Amino acid sequence: MLRSSPKSPAYSRTCGLALLLVSLGAPWIIHAQHPGALKDDNAIATVGDLPDAPSPTPDESSYNSILDVPPRTETGTPARKFHRVVQPNEFGQPLNSLDKLKLSIMSRLTASDVISTAFSAEFSQIRDSSPHYGTDSSAFGERLGALALKQTTQSIFNYGIYASLFHDDPRYYVMGRQRNAGVRALYSASRLVITRTDDGSSAINWPKFAGIASATGLTNLYYPARDHGFAHGATAFGVSLWTSILNNEIHEFDGHSIRLLRHDRN
Hints:
This protein has helices at residues 9-33, 97-106, 111-127, 137-165, 181-190, 206-218, 230-265, and strands spanning 77-78, 85-86, 90-91, 168-169, 172-173, 194-197, 202-204. By secondary structure, it is mainly alpha-helical.
């Protein structure tokens, strides 16, 4: 069982204020991205009422910068609907709000994510880093449970709840080998800040920042008391941002690496 302790009042108030600002600002940011969405006072939909995403097919020539998203087409092979990575020869099927929630949960059940979580917990155990559960035999189980809970809530907030509120596509679209490695590395890093919307255009990746902030705030419910407070929360927030960039780089290049390994074996 995870150890619990009283929450830090200052940090809890800070996280609560951040979530309140996100909640109040979401409809107006959505309106800025989708004019006309707030014409009717009763037109602000709940997460479960959001419509299915449309499927436009922008011109390939519009993809001229690493700050753009790859153009959305309906050619090639449809990507697995609840897989978070879309390869260059695939197209992403439209996702409604329920689909995004399913994707946020199923993406945490892959073998790579389970192994990564266990490895991170073991690394934290060796260094006795935050959360500070100690280094005894029971500490690893507590660290593993705490990390799995944080990553799962972050995934649900980011790819499920906030992606639906902001009408964003939570999947990572691989640029592929048509660009050189440097451009691909910059593109994958920029996905921390820029994301694809449901209609295929570019937007600021508000779900990522809001999701990390929400999951980090909730750690006050189950982290030891010494890991509460604004300083610990800010550090954890920054680490999560860097981890997100690293994950994007892996998504961008792992398919190519696997193909190279298979070629070498042959």
